[in-house]
Input
Amino acid sequence: MSGGPAYPRDTRKAALFCPAPTAAGDGRIAAAYDVCVADVERGPGAQADRIADLDTSVAHPARVYDYWLGGKDNFAADRVAAERVLAAAPGLRFRVRANRAFLGRATRYLAAEAGIRQFLDIGTGIPTADNTHEVAQRAAPSSRVVYVDNDPSF
Ligand SMILES: C[S@@+](CC[C@H](N)C(=O)[O-])C[C@H]1O[C@@H](n2cnc3c(N)ncnc32)[C@H](O)[C@@H]1O
Output
């Protein structure tokens, strides 16, 4: 028996959902593409199975940031790392919240004043209050947002 995937291949659907990496793309993009194709081919539930394997014993920047913002989507390792950084930089919580407030003001301005309707939010973090699409769509309901982050499950 071959070592290929045990699930049926559906390359047409995968091509639709998974943007192929360019030849010059780095290895992480190619790896993300492979995971995306496998998820699409395996169908509903595949992504949830993979997320269940998430290693929560290692701090991740998105969850550490969530902790600093007062969010609930973080684990012990994230909180320990976050507190260590706060011990070295006590004003950080204020700066993190100021950064989040700037994101809101900038998005609001772009949607309400500058007429922007398509947003690419790179390094979006974990969903929390006033996410980019919520701010943009409050100002202009037809706004569309694509979120990108460094997925810790890869
Ligand atoms: C400081 S948080 C910013 C969250 C949000 N944009 C905000 O302003 O409130 C930075 C985010 O960037 C993400 N990140 C770091 N390196 C990245 C990369 N190479 N590609 C995409 N996201 C990345 C982290 O996972 C984290 O969620």
In short: The mean pLDDT is 80. The first helix runs from residue 11 to 17.
